[in-house]
Amino acid sequence: MEAGEFLEAWGVDRPTVDVLSLARRAGIKVYQSPDMEWLSALDILDDEARLFTLSGIPAGEERFAAAHAMGHVALHKGSRFRCDLIARVQQEREANLYAQDLLVPSEMLDSFYEGARGDVRVLAHIFGVPEEAMRVRIRRYFGGPL
């Protein structure tokens, strides 16, 4: 299921997307731990998904890491993933793009971009994402070099 379809199915129509709550509502077991090596980890075994996030990191980073893991749930069944924010392999890049679309849907970005005058810091705050994630999302949506 694409990110926009997922948000529509759960009635999400404004920022900030509460990814951990959505994951739970979608039947994904969510655990937070201060003792992890990665920002997030995802196990998908026998059609049961378990999402682990590193507690104590900034909320925007936690949301992005969780949304990234949700991308793996939607796109890559039957695997174990240890996720970070660096898109080195195709599946990681796909999960990053899914996270961007989940946290900053095009329609919502359109609604808030002009009012924020394109200010990345303001938009990142509105959507509850790291500034770099917002920068990449804006470039991807409006065009320009990544």
Key traits:
alpha+beta, Arc Repressor Mutant, subunit A, 4-stranded mixed beta sheet, 7 helices
Summarize the structure.
The protein has helices at 3-9, 19-25, 59-75, 90-103, 106-113, 120-127, 131-142, and strands spanning 29-33, 40-45, 48-54, 80-83.
Description:
This protein has a domain at about 5-105: Orthogonal Bundle (Arc Repressor Mutant, subunit A), CATH 1.10.10. Helix content is about 50%, strand content about 15%. The chain is built from seven helices and four strands; from the N terminus they run ααβββαβαααα. It starts with a helix and ends with a helix. The mean pLDDT is about 85.
User: CATH fold name of the domain at 3-104, please?
Assistant: Arc Repressor Mutant, subunit A
User: What is the name of the CATH architecture of the domain at 3-104?
Assistant: Orthogonal Bundle
What is the overall silhouette?
globular
Oligomer: single chain
Fraction of residues in H or I helices: 40-55%
- The value of Rg in angstroms is 14 Å
The spatial strand order of the largest sheet comes to 1-3-2-4
Strand portion: 15-25%
Question: Class of the domain at 3-104 in CATH?
Answer: Mainly Alpha
Number of helices: 7
The tally of strands reads 4
Structural class: alpha+beta
Unreliable residue stretches? none
Largest sheet: 4 strands, mixed
Q: Roughly how many Å apart are the termini? A: 25 Å
Q: What is the ordering of alpha helices and beta strands?
A: HHEEEHEHHHH
Instruction: Give the integer mean of the pLDDT values.
Output: 83
